[in-house]
Amino acid sequence: MNCEQTAEVVSALCDGQQIPRDAAEHIGPCESCRALLHKYMEMGTELRRVASLQSLEILGEARWSAVKQIAPHWWQRGWESMRIPKFAFVSLVVGIVLLACGLVVVKARQRTQGSVLMLTVKSSDGETRKCALPTEHGNRGGCFSVKLVKVTEANGQVAHGWLKTGFRVIAQDGNRFQIGVRTGFTKLSPFENGKSYTFSPTPDEMKTLPERTYWFEPGERLAIDVPNSGKIEVTGEALDHMPAIVTSENGAEEPMDPKEGEFRVISPVLLKGSNRVVDLEGFTSITNGTEVVIVYAPGEGRFLLSPSPVAGAVEGVVRENRITFKSAGSSYEFLMAAPIARSEHIWILHQQDYKPSHKSVGIPDDQAFAGNMSLSSLLRARN
Amino acid sequence: MANDRELWERICRGDSEAFDSFYRENGPRLRSFLRQLLGSPQTAEDVMQETFLELWRKPNGFHPENGALRTYVFGIGRKRAAEWWRQAHPVGDIKRECVQRATAESTSLVSDVFSRIEEEQRSLLWLREVESFSYVELAHILGIPVGTVRSRLFAAREALRKIWHEAPQARKEGA
Asked: Quick one: B90 and B8 in the same domain?
């Protein structure tokens, strides 16, 4: 070997990397390579010296400490201990949200009328998720989801990406269903795997993907090729109602109903009349009723959702995953991804003039957000 | 300090004491790194504060199974720096830009020379030499394949070495 061939190895040596034997044999007696090694190490030492000087500078006032944290999310607390497949859960939640956004009346309850095609979608990495599709004409809706998958590329390297899938029932002929399937795969750079993402594409985004149609009969196995991500495998069964539970492969079940006293706000969408004014998909708050949920919608102000009466608040009517109320002469409706509470009423305090920048440093006025706070904190803040 | 999963769970529960400890340990380090990217100490301070504010408000972006919290924070910081750069320099690209460092800011010759190599090279060298991130962590922070970290580090060292070598001797002595 010569110096030119070993230069990169000299650099790797600085990083504590193991180097090939022939390179090590060359570098040992080579004055030129040892000088290069010395130079690299000298540069590293200088950078650390500069860093040491800068680290002594006083740290500024912590701006984060002046800002209320968006409350710990239910799914964060329960995510690791969840017994059902995570993406099965997310898919179900997302499916319900999107159905709700499209104002398709689908209730995640056993008493829902009509049959359902329950698809099980298995991606190339072997994980599965459920997709429930109402089959009655005029009530079909769709089921869209995004799943993080690992794929092995042609060069043998493992890559990550988002696998988008969307299903809908187009027609039914006896036991056979014509389904429309949209798929897509977006590869991510390694760092992006650590980012936070929303869990579903928008319906508009899904519409940009080509739709293929298949005739499918429950009990059959349908293999669909997704470019760059391998095949997905679809199986399914026909049910006579929308299930009230998420069913995993091993039969574990999770109830969708709130517990006694529980107040759940999951992926809230706020409608004003028929217009969607804010969509906080992914936000989840489940409390025992001692806290309230705040939702800020740019242009609309702040909404306080309280399970208890609050002075100045209007009474909203709870119907499973919806809260309807009137404020300032307009009709509003909150749609959630799951049933909200056993109570039939939630109180909404609408603060039209509220702007986040008036209260907290660093929070822009043009971004929607949601969070929790205790009622007493809120009242103190108002005074 | 508790392990990352414990720490993150505490942060998710709104434990400001745990977050403050993490901030005090890593805030100055992140600020130093950002100063290498942005040049201005005040901008670096602002971006560092925004980074911790984002983590505090939305800790759910971090996934313990994907790496260390510190790696995640440096990744966010670098992204925030790039966003700041795009806003301040609509026609520039931070990846190709070199920082114009005022002489008064120069702590040494290497500090001055360092500002003249490309942003990605600055990031790689600083995070490796000062923060001792592994090749895998560097790949995560910079969004590049792990297999290219070694060669890119070599290119960065060479870029720095050549500029340093070409620097006028008088400046070296005066540094």
From this structure: yes
Q: Are residues B72 and B2 in the same domain?
A: yes
* Nearest-CB residue to A72 (from B14, B75, B111): B14
Taking the model in full, what pTM does it have?
0.45
Nearest to B92 by CA among B119, B54, B115, B74: B119
pLDDT digit string, tens, across residues B26-85 = 999 999 999 999 888 888 998 999 899 888 887 877 888 778 999 999 999 999 998 888
Q: Which of A110-124, A181-195, B20-34 has the highest mean pLDDT?
A: B20-34
Domain boundary among B66, B96, B126: B96
Cβ pair B110:A43 closer than 8 A: yes
- Asked whether the beta carbons of A161 and A185 are under 8 A apart, the reply is yes
Pair B139, B149: CB distance under 8 Å: yes
Is residue A77 pLDDT above 60, yes or no?
Answer: no
Q: Does B158 lie in the same domain as B111?
A: yes
B90 and B149 assigned to the same domain: no
Q: Is B28 on the interface with A (CB under 8 A)?
A: yes
Range of the domain at B112: 101-175
Any bridge partners for residue A162, and if so which? A148, A186
- B65 interfacial to chain A (CB closer than 8 Å): no
Predicted ipTM?
0.86
Per the structure, the count of domains in chain B is 2
Residues of chain A neighbouring B8 (CB-CB closer than 8 A): none
Identify the domain boundary among B38, B68, B96.
B96
A44 vs B19, B129, B140: nearest CB:
B129
Bridge partners of A275, per DSSP, are A272
Numbers of helices and strands, H then E, in chain B:
9, 0
Give the closest-approach CA distance of A117 to chain B in angstroms.
Answer: 33
Residues B56 and B8 in one domain: yes
Q: What is the pLDDT of residues B90-107, one digit of tens each?
A: 555 555 555 544 334 445
